[in-house]
Amino acid sequence: MKTTKIKLVAVLLVVMAIGFSFTALNKITVKGSDTMVILSQKWAEVYMQKHPGTTIQVTGGGSGVGIAALINGSTDIANSSRPMKSSEVEKLKARYSTLGVEIPCAKDGLSVYLNKANGVSELTIKQIGQIFAGKITNWKEVGGIDANIRLYGRESSSGTFAFFKDNVVKTDYSPSCQTLPGTAAIVNAVKKDKLGIGYGGAAYAEGVKDCKVKKDDKSPGIAPTAETIKNKTYPITRYLYMYLKSRPTGETKAFIDWILSAEGQKIITSVGYFPVK
Known about the structure:
Elements: H1 2-25, E1 27-32, H2 37-50, E2 55-59, H3 63-72, E3 77-80, H4 86-96, E4 101-114, E5 122-124, H5 125-133, E6 150-154, H6 159-169, E7 178-180, H7 183-192, E8 196-201, E9 209-210, E10 212-214, H8 226-230, E11 237-244, H9 250-259, H10 262-271
Parallel strand pairs: 1-2, 1-3, 5-10, 6-7, 6-8
Antiparallel strand pairs: 3-11, 4-8, 4-9, 4-11
Helix pairs in contact: 2-10, 3-4
Protein name: Phosphate-binding protein
Pfam families: PBP_like_2
Organism: Flavobacterium zhoui
């Protein structure tokens, strides 16, 4: 009788171990870009409906936070709205002897948000850069009213912060720029502030107006729309990325393959971003 109980306990332990192993194998963690949170959550939601044995956990925090989590081994996939920095690649290589895998998964237009009551409706890239660098400080300098410009931007761990700095500001941000934890917070701030200006993903522009962006003084102002972002006539466009330590396998590979399929790419449009294919 005692032997039978021991065998039964052993069998139960094996079954539990298999169960825990199965759960671990079918759990995917995704962390990083706040710009990509809504999109990734939608991907996860639809995929889990079709694959009930798989759990996908999606969290934000910023591109830098996601890449740091990838390096320290606490996430399977790092979402990023900017390419990995060489210093980050070196850390990944030092820890795992791999350069990582970069997967462009969507396109995005980076909007410049204005309050709807603002008389300014278009700016050149140079003007936008000078505004966020603190070189242009009054709306009258760009055709608006005589009032100080109030700046809203992302925190330094954000990929959007880095991309906008590198491609638009091209120097340090003005110390007067108020940093906020997420694009939705920037939109909300500009919506309430007639003198405010901010930046972020085009999909978030609700309750504010998109500034038309001009490449230079002689170019027309272009609004971020599905067509202008897709054909790259809108001047501030970028890819959104997923990063992994190495080539995906198992359920992670299946999830990524599905994201890049026609079905997964179709979801991108419904959320307000644009397919890579």
